[in-house]
Specification:
By secondary structure, this protein is α/β, with parallel strands linked by helices. It is built from eleven helices and ten strands. Strands 1, 2, 3, 4, 5, 6, 7, 8, 9 and 10 form a ten-stranded mixed sheet that branches. The radius of gyration is 20 Å and the shape is globular.
Length: 355
């Protein structure tokens, strides 16, 4: 039986660059059954541009959210309208390798997975090429991933890429039976939270040790230029708080090892949050700003929504700083964070295939 795929592409003000993402889906060696492009109430010419593309390719279906709701709301609308056996999600600033769907189909035929994820290729939009593989799934080819495994690879220790950044494909039947959808109340770390919810419902998660998803970096590994695409800066404090909220939820709270892993993730994210604000203050010569990095005790699980965590309430202080983080333009958010990486090399084949 042939495996069919629906590909969901959420777009918002992506008129200038969505061609690359859509073209990478259209040119798959295994053709998708449909390509659902979800316009999240763009204010530029995105909607009209996609409408023209849909006239040329009957696989393209253009949908629009009733109001701007962020990537999660757009993806969920795609889930509700998908027709393929499996659903893949592609961010508008990223791209698929030409045989991504074909490789997934081959794995699906020999597994009972509900969730499949491959490795990432980092794409430098400034240099116009792939720089390196994330090597996130190395050594895990065909292996089933438990919730503990997943959390163990999301502790933000600088040793490897977080598995929460992986871009899985989903068995549509599992999504329909569970009714699970992306969380629409958060704008950072929604992939991480969604995968956890799937694993808590018993999803079988399998990894493929092949880099088939081209992930556009915020700051290019070669060009050192900020991407002019839609990927935003990371609100580390909000991600830390989200981890603590998850630690308080049913299915996790009663398992000390899982709680400890989420607390470790929160601690690592808070260190990145501190490094971010130190770098901003130093670049601006703002000595007083250095005092904004709060001395915190060990993080403890907390309940409630992220928006309910305010300065001075418990061990996590993020709300005020995250607001500034999201509104303030930054040249290089990770200037102050030293993470050892392999020097990037531009793969020459990538420029022609994915530019």
């Amino acid at each position: 039986m042939t495996v069919t795929f629906s590909v969901i592409v959420p777009v918002y003000n992506a008129e200038a660059f969505l061609d690359r993402a859509i073209r990478s889906v259209q040119q798959q060696t295994l053709s998708p059954q449909d390509i659902l492009i979800i316009d999240d109430c763009s204010t530029d010419g995105t909607y009209n541009k996609v409408a023209e593309l849909a006239k040329e390719d009957p696989r393209i279906r253009l949908l629009q959210t009733p109001q701007n709701g962020g990537p999660s709301a757009a993806r969920n609308l795609g889930f509700d309208n998908a027709t393929g056996d499996w659903v893949a999600v592609l961010d508008a600033d990223d791209a698929f390798a030409p045989d991504r769907l074909e490789q997934f189909a081959a794995m699906i035929e020999h597994s009972s997975a509900d969730l499949l994820a491959d490795d990432l290729l980092y794409y430098d939009s400034g240099a116009g090429c792939v720089t390196e593989s994330a090597r996130a799934t190395q050594g895990f080819n065909g292996k089933s991933i438990t919730l503990k495994d997943f959390l163990s690879h999301n502790v933000v220790d600088g040793k490897s890429m977080d598995w929460g950044l992986l871009k899985p494909v989903f068995r549509r039947k599992f999504l329909s039976e569970t009714g699970l959808r992306y969380p629409t109340d958060i704008r950072h770390g929604e992939d991480f939270s969604f995968i956890i919810s799937l694993l808590l419902k018993g999803a079988r998660f399998i990894l493929i040790d092949q880099p088939l998803y081209l992930y556009t970096q915020r700051s290019g590994g070669i060009s050192k230029k900020l991407s002019d695409l839609t990927r935003t800066s990371i609100a580390y404090g909000a991600l830390a708080n989200s981890a603590l909220v998850l630690a308080h939820q049913g299915g996790i709270a009663g398992h000390p090892q899982l709680v400890d892993l989420l607390k470790e993730r929160a601690s690592g994210l808070m260190l990145l949050d501190d490094a971010y604000f130190f770098s901003i203050a130093i670049r601006k010569g703002d000595i007083k700003g250095l005092g904004r990095v709060d001395k915190r005790s060990d993080p403890e699980p907390c309940g409630g929504d992220i928006e309910e965590t305010h300065e001075g309430q418990g061990g996590l202080v993020v709300a005020g700083r995250d607001t500034a983080h999201l509104l303030e333009p930054v040249e290089h958010p990770l200037d102050a964070v030293a993470v050892p990486v392999t020097p990037p090399v531009c793969f020459l084949w990538s420029a022609a295939a994915f530019a």
